[in-house]
């Protein structure tokens, strides 16, 4: 599941409209719409403001195995 689908599913599961989610998260309605539509470049701090309402956050996660620089 991608981030856009995740946020939309979570929002609907708690019966919030996009404007209600925007208000609760302290972000603009346009941001919520762009997030749920899968816009590729969004501010990570604002994404985390939204995800915090659902008990999640995004960030760098170390890989178990990967290329070494």
Short description:
It contains 4 helices and no strands.
Characterization of the model:
- The longest helix is centred in the first third of the chain and has 11 residues, at 3-13.
- With 69 residues, this protein is mainly α.
- The protein starts with a helix and ends in a 17-residue tail after the last helix.
- Helices cover 52% and strands 0% of the residues.
- The chain has one domain (3-52): lambda repressor-like DNA-binding domains (434 Repressor (Amino-terminal Domain)), CATH 1.10.260.40.
- α2 (18-25) packs across α3 and α2 (18-25) crosses α4.
Please give the share of residues in helix: 40-55%
**CATH topology, anyone?**
434 Repressor (Amino-terminal Domain)
Strand content: under 5%
Number of domains: 1
Shape: elongated
> What top-tier CATH class fits best?
Mainly Alpha
Q: Helix and strand succession?
A: HHHH
Global mean pLDDT: 92
DSSP strand tally: 0
Gyration radius, rounded: 13 Å
